[in-house]
Automatic annotation (TrEMBL):
Domain Kinesin motor, residue spans: 22-319
Name of the protein described by the UniProt record: Kinesin-like protein KIN-14A
Residues annotated to bind ATP: G103, Q104, T105, G106, S107, G108, K109, T110
Similarity-based family: Belongs to the TRAFAC class myosin-kinesin ATPase superfamily. Kinesin family. KIN-14 subfamily.
Residues forming coiled coils: 326-351
Full-sequence range covered: 353 to 703 of 1015
Length: 351
């Protein structure tokens, strides 16, 4: 009886995820660095909700957002990874998976994906934990799965053929590759932040293997540290820098358009509008699984960017797609629950 119930729960959970179109959105709030600065995050619920307060309005207007999960400033890398692990492991079962870090410069994207900026190996990021996991699973299964890594830190001025493909044997190999990629990544300083990175970094892992019945598996995992999403002020960026910034903002909005189209189950998905979405096409949509980390800085002077990041992320999340969709979900879920109840009753009678 117990195992059956667990199995049914699992089925219900999977169905719920299917109904959500395999897009999940996690929000991560980094710690506040400026002690005197006001904090814009007013409340974090453990149900994935979040309340943001406008620090400049005397009456302090609130905005509420809902995501699949919210990680507060004290959340550790391990906690974040724990909620990502199942998704990453599903790559070994043949699913294409895409994980994005989105947010303004300085909000913690690289911290989540790679680890702290001081290079400390204590708080390693998702990239390393994921690779470690995949290597471990492939060695336990002893079924000749190989991992192929494509590390591509392309400046927007360069084209994709610059991406390199490497066969790797251990997480250490990957670490070295990532370091090289990070070196190649160009940093342009803006008035906002000198570490500002004006490029996307994409780490792709290809998995080749066989499933239990001997069928070929070829899946891939994209780990994407996106360029900063902040709007550019024309007075602060000129010439090539401004063009570059506009180009980046365009590729981010194209990504948003693709995710929204997928979330709304549109028949036309505008993959071809940017290189980024073309590159990731096989892992966006279909039965691919997607996770977006929306990163926000809690400081008052980031309020505008925080709201725009949360709105972008909300748009990507089917959970809030409006009444029609939600109703459809709830009626389907209700039906499933009824089915499960029926099965449980049938089981109880047998026992
Ligand atoms: P981004 O990649 O979005 O520009 P970073 O990841 O470089 O931002 O983060 C900016 C700074 O804040 C870095 O020094 C980083 O180590 C630190 N940081 C970001 N997120 C956290 C966190 N959750 N805990 C501790 N430090 C963080
Ligand atoms: Mg970064």
């Amino acid at each position: 009886g117990y195992h059956q119930a667990v199995k049914e729960n699992r089925q219900l959970y999977n169905t719920l995820q299917e109904l959500r179109g395999n897009i999940r959105v996690f929000c991560r709030i980094r710690p506040i660095f400026n002690e005197e600065g006001k904090c814009t995050i007013d409340y974090i619920g453990n149900d994935g909700s979040l309340m943001v307060i406008d620090p400049f309005k005397p009456q302090n207007t609130c905005k509420i957002f809902q995501f699949n999960k919210v990680f507060g400033p004290t959340a550790t890398q391990d906690e974040v990874y724990k909620d990502t692990q199942a998704l990453i492991r599903s790559v070994m079962d043949g699913y294409n998976v895409c994980i994005f870090a989105y947010g303004q410069t300085g909000s913690g994207k690289t911290h989540t994906m790679c680890g702290p900026s001081n290079g400390s190996s204590k708080d390693i990021g998702i990239n390393y934990m994921a690779l470690n996991d995949l290597f471990q699973i492939s060695s336990i299964r002893e079924d000749n799965r190989t991992l192929e890594i494509r590390s591509c830190s392309n400046n927007v001025w360069l084209s994709l053929p610059d991406a390199n493909m490497h066969l790797v044997q251990s997480t250490a190999d990957v670490l070295n590759l990532m370091k090289l990629g990070e070196k190649n990544r160009t940093f342009g300083s803006t008035a906002m932040n000198h570490r500002s990175s004006r490029s996307h970094s994409v780490l792709t892992v290809h998995v080749h293997g066989k499933d239990i019945s001997g069928g070929a598996i070829h899946s891939c995992l994209h780990l994407v540290d996106l360029a900063g999403s902040e709007r550019v002020d024309k007075s602060e960026a000129t010439g090539d820098r401004l063009k570059e910034a506009q180009h980046i903002n365009k590729s981010l909005s194209c990504l948003g358009d693709v995710i929204t189209a997928l979330a709304q189950k549109n028949s036309h998905i505008p993959y071809r509008n940017s290189k980024l979405t073309q590159l990731l096409q096989n892992s966006l949509g279909g039965n691919a699984k997607m996770l977006m980390f929306a990163h926000v800085s809690p400081e008052a002077d980031s309020y505008g960017e925080t709201i725009s990041t949360l709105k972008f992320a909300q748009r990507a999340s089917t959970v809030e797609l409006g009444a029609a969709h939600l109703n459809k979900e709830s009626s389907e879920i209700r039906e499933l629950k009824e089915q499960i109840d029926g099965l449980k009753n049938a089981l109880a009678i047998k026992e």
